[in-house]
Amino acid sequence: MKPPKPISTKSKKKPAELALIAVVISWIFLLILMPLYGIAKEVFHNGLHACFASLNEPAAVHAFYLTLWLTVGAVAVNTTLGIILALVLVRQEFKGKLLLDGLIDLPFAVSPVVAGFMLITLFGPHGWIGSLFEARDIKIIYAFPGMMIATLFVTFPFVVREVVPVLREFGVDQEEAAFVLGASKWQTFWQVTLPSIKWGLIYGVTLTMARSIGEFGAVLVVSGAIINKTQSATLYVHQKFTDFDYGGAFAASIVLAMLSFFTLIGMQYIQKKKV
Amino acid sequence: MSVKKTSSGDLVLRSFTLGYIGLLIILPVCAVASEAFKEGVVTIWHEVTLPQALVSLKLTFVMALIIVTINIITGTATAWVLVRYEFPLKKFLNALIDLPFAIPTVVTGIMLVRLYGPKSIIGGFLKQFDIEMIFNKPGIVLALLFVTFPFVVRSVQPVFLEMEKEMEEAAQTLGATPVEIFFMIILPTLFPSMLTGAALSLSRALGEFGSVVIVAGNIPFKTLVAPVYIYGEIESHNLPGATSVSLVLLAISFLILVAIHFFQKWSRRHETA
Question: Residue B191 is part of which domain span?
Answer without folding.
Answer: 41-267
